Amino acid sequence: MPFFTDAVQWLGKMPARGLGDCDYVSGAAHKFGGPRGVGFLKIPYKHKISSLLYGGKQERGQRAGTENVPIILAMLAALEVREKQLANGDHETRAVWKEKFEKLLLRHVHGSKVVGANTPRLWNTTSALMPEGGQLRWVTRLDKAGFAVSTGSACTTGKEEPSHVLSAMGFKAGQVTQVLRFSSGWETTAADWEALEKGIVKVYDEVHQTK
Asked: Catalytic annotation on 22?
């Protein structure tokens, strides 16, 4: 039975070792610092899949069209850089920064709750239930303070219904609308996390003062 792995959210955040054992693997360059608009699909050499685009015989007849070689090479270069950083344990250092942020958030913002706390999670993202005022109020005030945060993943942009993931985790509809997502990247520093925590506390204090 062929095995397919969608590694879009994994590559560039955790080591890629072992993924080569899967029959099929997909990835997207922008998730690990490469250019947008390019990705890859690993296919066993003798396996045949239905073509997405028909016409020319590029890529063994499985995807017609001239390949954008410079962009593909940029994707490979970006992945090599991330793999070296992961091999050096740089992601573990960044996980410590995020964990410190979460502890300070829970300490200074009463009523906040980290989604998935005390469970294995990626080092770059924190989702938290925030008290006071609802999601949009937090997003707007933090934006004015210079911080771009979101109410969910990019995949759910424009959707009005509650997150099916949070609902499956047992969160009630009212709680789901309190969740904010804080995402970081390889360029994010410890100072950035500290500044975000201070910005959140400032907004929290402002909301209390306006009551």
From this structure: no
